[in-house]
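Session log. Operator J.P. requested a structure for one protein chain; no other inputs attached. Running the standard single-chain path with token output.
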Amino acid sequence: MTEGQDRRELILSTAAELFAQRGLHATTVRQIGDAVGLFSGSLYYYFPSKDAILDELLTRYLDAIRVRYATVLAADKRPAETLHDLVVTSLEVAQEHPHAQAIYQNEGQFMREMPGFEQVQTAAADVQQTWLRVIEAGAADGSFRRDIPPRVFYRLIRDAVWLSVRWHRPDGPYPTRRLAEDITSILLDGFAARDAGDRPPDDPVSREAHLLP
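Structure written below.
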């Protein structure tokens, strides 16, 4: 990697952290430049605008999701298993790109309404269509309920996954795959207690659940 590429990556990672912590509108080009040791005018050598930095950050993030989703779909499992694997993958990618995930949650509406973010909008639409195809396949084969519109179910599971990133700690007592199993189970099977399959009271995750924020 050349020095220019190194500097470009540093700008992206620094801007991602600032955008996630302060918000897009509260972060200036000058602040980004100061954080990486560049005058704001010099930063424009690498990116034409703050929006261009945002666009690249989120396009990379969504492209990473799309690549991983393609792997999940290629496994050609049943809809319920595929849905579970999409949940696991989504959580893992969010943990690998925490700042981009936070920005996408916080600035998503802005990017959907503003011109210039066509790549992000296209990638986001592809991500949504992946979920919808799996949900529709499950409804078609009888795995999922047909009286709930696929887009409604998609929004419910999307929010359960993406918003959990704000409180879940993957290195804590409640691992990512367990979270994925619980999200999938609750949304597909409900939260009512069952005679079989409920976790015993000595389950270590249950015992330490009070440690979650």
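Operator note: The mean pLDDT is 86.
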